[in-house]
């Protein structure tokens, strides 16, 4: 059984033929050219798909993209970095152009589906996926199905407020989870602390251009024993812990799968989070609590899009 998985990004369209048992067996990448307009991009996606279909028997297409996606997984609203895409039934547009049924989904939900079908999430019936990348996204898997909410937009975990006096991010208010754990916001927080410690090796490395400081630099420094880097990651991990408590108390889901560049800090981030959970989570919810790291890497989006197609068209 084979499907096409598509990862629509601002820079590239990635597409792959994915076998249910073997995983990715063929792939292609082409520049997005979103600036040339909606119709051009839809044609370009369809041409990329068609180049893969010729030698395979495909049952359906799944596509991940940024933006809010309708509950029926057909329409995206106001996706960032896609000019002219106000409200687009992308699933129908792709079906008309390729002749193959298509479903679409928000990129964070796609990551959750990738983990459920091909990653560490396979061992859980229910889990919450948190993507710690440029921003913070999320996807909720409940009893092996993606939880979409009443209008399809559930899982905006990065916009949960943990301190309304806290820093700004892309959210409409201060102190959201993303303001502490999104890549550029974590880097901004780190730069403030490093600038107050001119004797630290991180200061001499980045003082001339803190814009080059990334979470991976903190992780590498922490592995080398840099106490300030360890402290910065621990403070962020504590904020993560408070966020996890909110999610558990609200959803009664105790398994968490973390992915994205920030999550590569591993136990420098996870252990402080677990300490907060042990201290502040209501006792009955602690049973079965677990944090695991997802390492599907760059294939995560393609595999998740394929998982969407398998869920939608395999029956």
Structural class: alpha/beta
Task: Count all strands and give the number.
Answer: 13
Regarding quaternary structure, what we see is single chain
Sheet with most strands: 5 strands, mixed
CATH H level, superfamily name of the largest domain: ATPase, nucleotide binding domain
> How many domains is the backbone divided into?
2
CATH class of the largest domain: Alpha Beta
Q: How much is the radius of gyration in Å? A: 20 Å
Low-confidence stretches: none
CATH topology of the largest domain: Nucleotidyltransferase, domain 5
Q: SSE order in H/E notation?
A: EEEHEEEEHEHEEEHHHHHEHEH
Task: Provide the CATH architecture of the largest domain.
Answer: 2-Layer Sandwich
Shape: globular
Organism: Gracilimonas halophila
InterPro entries: ATPase_NBD, ROK, ROK_cs
Protein name: ROK family protein
Family: Belongs to the ROK (NagC/XylR) family.
Short recap of the structure:
This protein is an alpha/beta fold. The chain is built from ten helices and 13 strands. The protein is globular and about 60 Å long.
Structural write-up:
- With 315 residues, the chain is of the alpha/beta class.
- It folds into two domains: 2-114 and 298-313, Nucleotidyltransferase, domain 5; 123-295, Nucleotidyltransferase, domain 5 (2-Layer Sandwich), CATH 3.30.420.
- 39% of the residues lie in helices and 21% in strands.
- The protein has ten helices and 13 strands.
- It has helices at 38-53, 90-98, 107-118, 177-181, 183-195, 201-206, 215-223, 227-251, 267-280, 300-313, and strands spanning 2-8, 12-19, 23-31, 58-65, 68-69, 76-77, 87-88, 102-106, 127-132, 136-142, 145-146, 255-259, 290-293.
- The strands form three sheets. It has a five-stranded mixed beta sheet with strand order 3-2-1-4-8. It has a five-stranded mixed beta sheet with strand order 11-10-9-12-13.
- Helix 8 (227-251) crosses helix 9 (267-280).
- The mean pLDDT is 94.
